[in-house]
Structure formats: structure tokens, C-alpha cells
């Protein structure tokens, strides 16, 4: 990113380049001599966690602001859900059956991106976790429409490389789950949740809690696949037990198709 602001002081980038050209001596090779902001060993120290948290919050925010992105539509969903043409490779029969939601996510993202492009690509930009499965379908649908989409990846031990459909300039990588979740919701104007596992459930309930407690504005909160969601969560039992209010069941709606979801979002924001 180029900073076009003028300053009376020599910029940090110039000093970084100059510092790399010094003579090779025991002093210049010592870790203590490195510029603090170029010293990765220093930046990953335990004491620097507050700085890293701030950097992860700030970097995507600056880039999204520079791109003029004002609002997003968030897609959560399972990384293991295959596209229908590959459902024979699915680990379980249930995953194979759920592959239909890959197509729904793709169609939904294409339709939303077409609307976004009518607003110069600044509103209702599709944002996913940037990985495979439903996330790939969301970014792929945006690419089908010829528009941009966001991928909020996170470093995991065994997986998570960006799918090939995320817009490269909007493909971010995180260390902290908490900061990643903030970026999912800071610009959200709708949340669409497809079948998934622990990660999807975590994102779903955290977002619902923020809305329930008035920490975040109400918005279309759509759960794709009523049969799946009612099978894994007894929503009414929570209300009957009194652990949530009956009114909390109105915070979300079940949908089956992209067309249903689009209609709800359009009516909500009209």
C-alpha cells in the first residue's frame, strides 16, 4: 500500500532499505541491531501480543477502506462440503447430500455480487473464510459474476490455503480468531450460514449473541438447510428451558434456496 500523505520526516520504508545495505559486521548481524518493525523474531515475542492484535485489526481495515468497501454479506459454512460433481468423494453420505448447498452458496454469491457491482462493488460484497467447501462456493459465485470478494483466511495446523476464487487484493490471513471474527462482522449487512461443523457453529452463535445482546444491529440472519439445523440443534428446547427468550428465535430465519435469501435481504434493506 502506498501512503500518499506528505511528511517532513524520512519514511520508514526508505530507512528499511538503507538498513539492509550496511556492511556485514558482527554488530550489524546481531539481532539487537535490527529495526524493530522489520525484526520478525521480535514481533512474535509473547510481550508483543497487543501489537500483533492491533496490526491484524488495522491491516485489513486500511485495505478495505482504500478499496471503498462499505458493507459485506457474510457466508459461513463447512469446509468439507463438496461441490456436487465431487460428492462421490465425500467422507459420508450426509456430506454428499449437503453438496447441494455448495451450488446454493455459489448462486447466492453470484446474485449478490451482481447487485454489488451495480453499486460500484462497494456495498454487499461477499465475504467468506477464504477456504474450501462453502467458502470456495461463495468466492466462486462472486467470480462468476465478474466481481470481487473477500477471503478471511486463518493459519491452521493442517489446512487452510486460500481458494483460487478469492480476489487476490482482498485475501487476508490471520493468526487470531477473535480479530478475524471482528472483520467478518464489522461491515456485515447480512449473515448467511450454511451447514458446517465446529467453526461454523462457533461463528453462528457468536454473531447471534452479539445481536441478542444489542452489541450489533439486527440484520438478515439466514440459516440454509432447515432440516440440518433442526437436527443438530433443538432451538425450541432452549426457549422452553428459559435459557433464551422465545423472541430470540426470531433473530434468524431458515431458507433453502439462494432466491429465498435474496428476497429476504432485498426486502429488509429496501
Helix/strand structural class: alpha/beta
Distance between the termini: 35 Å
Q: Runs with pLDDT <50, length 5+? A: none
User: How large is the count of helical segments?
Assistant: 12
Write the element-wise H/E pattern from the N-terminal end onward: HHHHEHHEHEEHEHEHHEH
Which labels suit this protein?
elongated, about 10% strand, 12 helices, alpha/beta, 7 strands, 7-stranded parallel beta sheet
Kindly describe this structure.
The chain has 270 residues and is of the alpha/beta class. 45% of the residues lie in helices and 11% in strands. It contains twelve helices and seven strands. A seven-stranded parallel beta sheet has the order 4-3-2-1-5-6-7, sandwiched between helices. Helix 9 links the parallel strand 5 (188-193) and strand 6. Helix 4 packs parallel to helix 8 (177-186), helix 6 crosses helix 7 and helix 6 runs parallel beside helix 12. The two termini are 35 Å apart. The model has no long low-confidence stretch (mean pLDDT 94).
Helices and strands in order, then pairings?
Layout: H1 12-19, H2 26-29, H3 40-43, H4 49-66, E1 72-76, H5 93-98, H6 100-118, E2 125-128, H7 134-144, E3 150-154, E4 171-174, H8 177-186, E5 188-193, H9 198-212, E6 221-224, H10 226-232, H11 235-241, E7 253-255, H12 258-269
Parallel strand pairs: 1-2, 1-5, 2-3, 3-4, 5-6, 6-7
Helix pairs in contact: 4-8, 6-7, 6-12
In short:
It is built from twelve helices and seven strands.
